[in-house]
What does this fold into?
Amino acid sequence: MTDMEVDEIFDCAFVPVSKKIASLNLRRELDRDIDGGDSYTGSVYTKGKFNSLIVCEISSAVYEHIIYVMNGGEPAPGEELLYINEYINIVCGYALSNINNKLGGSSRLTVPVFGEKGERFREESGKSKSVVLYYETDIGVIRVSVYY
Amino acid sequence: MGKTTLMVVDDSPFASKQIKDIVEENGYEVIGYAKDGEEGIRMYEELHPDMVILDIIMPGIDGLETAQILQEKDPDVTILMLSSLCDSGTLEEVRAIGVKYLIPKPWEDDVLLATLELLKKQRDEKLAKKA
It folds into this structure.
């Protein structure tokens, strides 16, 4: 797949699905660095015909907003990760379904993993190609890197 | 006649809450919620719900394997699969194990309800034939 196709598929997943499940209006902007100390980083792999690593950096206000909206209020202590993981699972699954249909194969998503606030993702992707999608909202930013 | 009973197997409390809210307004009763396949199998044997709503991507054994184990234990089990992965290949895998319907996440409520109604009708007809 070309970078442009991967970019378009993930963009067409993040924007509408974030609005539907997390009431988040994402505006695509040029890529820039995100404040690592005030953000959460999560990752998920796709395995199969489309092998990739997707890394999502989410500023803390957006992270908390997603959890709050998906739960309909403050979640019980310790349940935060379940909501943010489901957000990533739904958005990336939506994108991967389109990739699977395009490639004619069935790739699977792993269960997402998120670190603590300020904890950066250190694992090497080992992939040769990548696309980055940077989004602003009224309360913070989301930066998505797809290595494939 | 009692309400049709459901069990939800999904590691996400988001999905479980959303399902409970919509189905209980429409004549169903959620009698169990399991957060993974292993718990779902144990709970099914204990509760014997009329239908099982089963997510595919979960920690431990996934929804496809869970469905197969449930089918071995109870050939009459009625399962509706849910997944963020809803491509044609995944649908083929779901159908290959004998599950007819796969609903995408995020779902439309009317699609979820219409599919449950269809499953309920098919289940009732199957039970009536057996009686």
Remarks:
- The CA atoms of residues 78 and 123 of chain B lie 7 Å apart.
- The domain at 4-130 of chain B is CATH 3.40.50.2300 (Rossmann fold).
- The mean pLDDT of chain B is 94.
